[in-house]
Amino acid sequence: MRHLLSTIGLERAQAIAILDLAEDMADVATRAVPKLPTLRGRTVANLFFEDSTRTRLSFEAAAKRLSADVITFSAKGSSVSKGESLKDTAQTIAAMGVDAVVLRHPASGAAQVLAESGWIDAAVVNAGDGTHQHPTQALLDAYTIRKTLHGAASRGRDLDGLRVTIVGDILHSRVARSNVWLLTALGAQVHLVGPRTLLPAGVESWPVTVGTDLDAAIDAHPDALMMLRVQQERMHAAFFPHEREYSTGWGLGDERFARLAADTMVMHPGPMNRGLEISASAADSPRSVVLDQVTNGVSIRMAVLYLVLSGADPREVAA
Length: 319
Ligand code: CP
What we know:
Number of strands: 9
Organism: Protaetiibacter larvae
Helix content: 25-40%
Mean pLDDT: 95
Radius of gyration: 19 Å
Largest sheet: 5 strands, parallel
Bound molecules: phosphoric acid mono(formamide)ester
Structural class: alpha/beta
CATH architecture of the largest domain: 3-Layer(aba) Sandwich
CATH topology of the largest domain: Rossmann fold
Strand order of the largest sheet: 7-6-5-8-9
Shape: globular
GO molecular function, one term: aspartate carbamoyltransferase activity
Pathway: Pyrimidine metabolism; UMP biosynthesis via de novo pathway; (S)-dihydroorotate from bicarbonate: step 2/3
Number of domains: 2
Binding site for carbamoyl phosphate: 54-55, 104, 134, 137, 270-271
Function: Catalyzes the condensation of carbamoyl phosphate and aspartate to form carbamoyl aspartate and inorganic phosphate, the committed step in the de novo pyrimidine nucleotide biosynthesis pathway.
CATH class of the largest domain: Alpha Beta
Oligomer: single chain
CATH superfamily of the largest domain: Aspartate/ornithine carbamoyltransferase
C-alpha cells in the first residue's frame, strides 16, 4: 500500500487484513509487550494544519511503538502564518528526510494532492481532510465494533449484517463519510440520522438508509450507535438548529439513553460536546466504547504505518 487517502475503494479483503494486522499489533500498541524494531531508521512526519488530540498523538504513539522517529509540525506557530503554502511546507519537511507524512488539513482533497502532486516522495496518510475523509478513524471504528462483538474471535471476520446508526452532523463529517464506505464494504448496514439541514446533498446515492427520527432509529435496535460531534466551526448559522432543539431531537440524552437496548454499543469519534450530542452519563456508561476507540486507534495506525512504509499489500501481510 503506497498511501492511505480514503476508504473509498478499499476492498473487503483488504479492510479485513488491515484489521487483522492491527489485531496482531495490539499487544505492542497497549504496551503489554515491548515495542517492535520494525520501523527503526524510518521517520514519520505529522503535519497538522488543523487541531487534533487523538489522531496526532495516536500516530505518534504508533510510530514510536514501531521504533520510527517522529517529527511533528503544527500550523499554529509555524511559517504558515507568514503565508507558506502546503507545497513549500511539505517540501521543507521532506528535505529533512522523512519516509511518511501524516497530513491533517482543512481542505478536502489535500492529502490526495500531496500524494499525487510529486512534490514529495514520502508515503502519505490522510489524517482528516476537510469534510472529506478520515480513513484511520473509520478503520479504528470498524475494529472497535468487531472487537466489542467478537472479542478474541475477531480475526478474519467482516461486519456482515451488523447494523450501525450514525447520528448528527453528517454534512460536515469526514468520519461519517469514511465510515459509510468502509462499514458497508465490510458488510454492515449503515443508517444515517440527523436534522435535514445537516444531511448532505446527494446522500440518497450513498449505500445507506437515511432518516431524521432518532427515536425510531433507536427503537430499531442497532448494534452500534455512533454519535457525531456537531462541527460548529465549519457551520453557517443557518444550518444549525438551536442547541436545545438539536439535543432534544438528535442528542443522546439521559432519557433516550435509558431506552437504548442493553447490547447497543455507544460510539463517538471525539472530541465530544457533552450535553449537546451526548450526555455525560451516556458517554461514561459501560456501554460506551469511546475510550476503546482511542486505544484501538494506536494499533490501527501501527498497521497503517507499517503497510505504507513497507509498500505491502495488506492481504499478503495478514495472510
Ligand atoms: N477523532 C479525531 O479525529 O479526534 P482529534 O480531532 O482529536 O484527532
